[in-house]
Amino acid sequence: MTAALRSALAARLTCEVRYGEPLSRHTTYRIGGPATALVLPRAPDDVAATLRFAAESGTNWLVLGLGSNVLVADRGFDGIVLKIGKGLDQVAREGPEGSRWSVGAGLPTPILARKSAAAGHGGAQRLVGVPGTVGGGVYMNAGAHGQDFSSCTRVVDVVDSTGALRSLKGTEIGWRYRSSGLDSLVVVGATVELVPGDPVQTQQELSLYLKKRKDGTPFDEPCCGSVFRNPEDRTAGHLIDAADLKGFRVGDAEVSRMHANYIVNTGAATAADVRAVMDAVRERVHDRFGVVLEPEVKLIGFVEGG
C-alpha cells in the first residue's frame, strides 16, 4: 500500500489502523505474517467506510474476529484486514421478557452462551465451546453438540462489498453445513431468538457442554478448532485417528493426541508446518480409506500450490 493510499484510508476512518501488524497476534493459532493494514472498526460505519475505500482503490480485504478457524500464511496478507471486536460486541435482550437478543458481530460466542444461559434463555448454551465471534459463527454457520447458528438466527446485519449496510432475514440466507452463503458480505450484527426456560437447568447444561469440549479437545492449546470438515458417514477425527496419525508432526505443528481433527501449535510452528501436516493427513486418509478430507479451516494469504 502506497503512502498516498495510507493517507487516503486514514482520512476515511476515525478508528485505529495499524500497518504491518503481525497477524500471529490476532489468530488462535498464534501464526501468521503481517497485514498491509489492520483496521479496528468501532461501529458498522467504520466497516462500511473501509469497504468503500477497498472497492474504489482495488485493495484486497478480509475479515477476522477472534482469529479462530483460519490459518494465515507466513508471508501475511497483502491488503486490509478488518478485525471485528471491541465496539461491535454489544449484547442486549429486546425487551425485559423478550426472547430475541440483539448481538454485535464482535461478541465472542461463549459470552453470548453464558449471558443468555444466566438469563434462563436456552438455544445458545451448546455453543459455549465455539472459539470465535458471533459474526464468524453466523458467517460459517458454526455449531457444536447438534446446535448451529442457523437454528436461532432470525436477522443478520451486513455490509456488502460496496459499503452498503442492509439487513437479511434468516429465511433469506442459504444455510448449509458450516456455511451461510454470505460470501463477500461482512456480518456486523445479528438477532437471535432463544427459548425462555429455567436458569438453573440452562446453566447446568452449559457447564456440561463446556466440560465435554474441554475434556475432548485441546481447548487451551494454540489451534484453529476443527481442521477438516466431517464427511457424510464418518467424522474426520475418527478417520485421522484410524490412520494412526495422532502425534504426527512437522516442525512444531502436531496432530493432537487428544482429538485427531485438531492440529496444534506446540511452540513455534509456522503456517508452512501446519500445511505440511494437513497435506500428509489428507494423503494418508485417502490412501487408507479412499476419502478426500476437505479443509474447514480457511487458508489466508497462500499462493496457488503453496
Overview of this protein structure:
There is one protein chain. The protein is an alpha+beta fold and 306 residues long. The protein starts with a helix and ends in a 6-residue tail after the last strand. The protein has 3 domains: 3-83, Uridine Diphospho-n-acetylenolpyruvylglucosamine Reductase, domain 2; 91-216, Uridine Diphospho-n-acetylenolpyruvylglucosamine Reductase, domain 3 (2-Layer Sandwich); 236-300, Uridine Diphospho-n-acetylenolpyruvylglucosamine Reductase, domain 1. The mean pLDDT is 93. The protein has helices spanning 3-12, 44-57, 109-118, 134-139, 199-216, 236-242, 271-289, and strands at residues 16-22, 34-40, 61-64, 70-72, 77-83, 91-93, 100-104, 121-122, 143-144, 147-148, 153-159, 165-169, 186-193, 195-196, 249-250, 253-255, 263-265, 298-300.
